[in-house]
Amino acid sequence: MTTNTTTPAVSVSKLVKHYGDMTALDYFDLDVRQGEIFGLLGPNGSGKTTAINCILALLAYEAGAIRVFGEPMTPTSYALKRRIGLVPQNVAVFNELTVEENIDYFCSLYVPKKAERAPLVEQAIDFAELREFRKYRPGKLSGGLLRRLNIACGIAHRPDLIFFDEPTVAVDPQSRNAILEGIRRLNRDGATIIYTSHYMEEVEEICDRILIMDHGRHLALGTADELKNMIDTGERITIETLDLDDDTLTAVRALGFVTDAAWDGRELDVTCRRGEHNLVDLIGVLRAGGVSIGHLTSRPPTLNDVFLELTGTALRD
Asked: Is residue 305 domain-resident?
């Protein structure tokens, strides 16, 4: 979702943050457009959480500037903070309160008047599909319902900017789909979303643009397709074959675009660099070797391939 508003929802410029001798943010830059779902990816220790906490004015930093909706963000920017929602990775609710009471409490931190708050609480209950569980305490909820309660508590005050930190960790597929659709709905209703996840398929599915960071630095930014076009990694080709001989496997590995080739006696798995004729050239080598070809698949590079090439590591828990 895009808007005509040119003022970024979040603008971070040359941000520097140290913990002792460790550099957590190294002149980090970030710009999030109003109305988009923005993915923030990085391995553990990359600086994601530090960056978010600095944006929320929960951490002091040594250098740089942060603006939210065009205004400087400081610990006393209460008007700005009322426009922000946070859904943390760890479920943060009170076990002594019911679903309804939890949502009402967190909403009251932003909307003190009960009369104004009551319809917002009802909307949040309906949004998270928790109406039949409104009198339950958290201890009686499943993991997926707990996640939905966590989201309802973070968005009940109708924020314009919402941070989602790993919102689908350890939930079943049905709850995961409900959460992702809920995030899309919030975005369609006008909220700007900043989304972090270890699940690459989620990021690719819902994010308009994605920033990859590591060691406190901005590494790459773009749509999923734009990021894939930045790397040398091409498609991964899998071919069923039972009669591949050593000479033909050596010939496959000698192809200039092949970075890796392995055969387990049933399938040949080939990883390629980017190229226009990789599949044709590979099949040509196999046919020249008299190899019988069965089922064939060609998978384009994924966000995980991008991440691996740019950071040297897979996105890990």
From this structure: no
Position 317 in a domain: no
Q: 4 pLDDT exceeds 80?
A: no
- Domain of residue 192 covers 10-223
Which whole number is the average pLDDT over 237-250? 96
Rounded to the nearest angstrom, the gap between the alpha carbon of residue 192 and the centroid of all alpha carbons in its chain is 14
What is the number of domains present in the chain? 2
pLDDT tens for residues 6-33? 899 999 999 999 999 999 999 999 999 9
CATH (domain of 270): 3.30.70.980
Which one of 203, 223, 243 terminates a domain? 223
Q: Is the residue at 104 inside a domain?
A: yes
